[in-house]
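Subject: Sanity check before I submit

Could someone independently write out the structure tokens for this chain? I want to compare against mine line by line before I put it in a report. The sequence has 381 residues.
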Amino acid sequence: MNEIAWGCVLFVCLATLLHFTSALLAVYRSRRGTDDPSFTTVNSANLPPISVLRPVCGLDPHDELTLRSSFQLAYQRYELILCCDDADDPVVPVIRRLIGEYPQVDAKLLIGRDTLTSNPKLNNLIKGWRSARHAWVVMADSNVLMPTDYLQRLLAGWRADTGLLCAPPIGCMPDGFWAEVECAFLNTYQARWQYAADTVGLGFAQGKTMLWRRADLERAGGIRALGAEIAEDAAATKVVRHAGKRVRLVDRAFGQPLGRRGAKQIWSRQVRWAKLRRATFPLFFLPEILSGSAAPLLAAAYVAAALDVTSVGVVAALAAAWYGCEAVLARAAGWHLTALSPLAWVARDLILPVVWVQAWLGNSFSWRGNDMHLADAVPSN
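---
Independent answer below. Compare away.
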């Protein structure tokens, strides 16, 4: 074999080792604590009071389900603050009805628009942060499905060196093939890498769920400090690390119901996230083009050709091992897994390199009707 072929062998071995190792770490994290009796035996009256902030905008198919879950938490001392920019938003009547259905929950809806940062989601949360009464504050997106022990599980993940506790979204309840593809991105790809990074001490914030000790963020400049980057989770990561603390992920992350998705939705969302990662953590974004199976499979095909071996058989064997590993991870973690999942994983890995290239070709995007520009992230970099 020539030197290129030997290089390809090394790359395939390293990529496959990383793939299996990250999957093993994700299995460990997604199952750790499942038999922890503290979740059911600790009286929540003995746990600290918590403010739960949920920004809302628009009404998606599963929003009533996810918003209702925040009224059903088995936690005695928490306040629920729902934040909306516009009194005419279609989600407002749903929230008012839920507040009426659960009078025992200390819940309120705040309506108003702040424009202190370039981040519309963060601007929506500012009024909630100012209104929150408690020393512990959770910021949770409206599409997070909260289990009844949501707050207990977050507190259980806090350590002495923690500055922020987050949870990656786990795609569930998909409807249609493109929703399966989004599950493939969220679960056995993104959550796998996030759990692996966190386990080795390199945790990154995830904006879906963020548990703060209020005093920690206030020392960094308050909630406005999260506007230093175009993405609040990127800013949060840098704020916490600057304070000498760690971003950690909760074990056994929480579901995000997907419903029906279209190819255009998946594409625009993945490109938007890729652009944000490129702008806020460029050194970590660079190798992402190699993070799926496409590059290792191409390298394996080259090695097979160099050895005069049938490329189809080699590529098929490596793909079976690669995606078999993902299937084991999904099954062990209790994540979504169907007969369509392997096809969705293949589609994801074909899309990944194209998304990576597209992330370098523009500096603007639209999010829920708001035009945003990556230039907003440059000053803090």
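---
OP: Matches mine. For the report I'm noting this point. Residues 377-381 have pLDDT under 50 and may be disordered.
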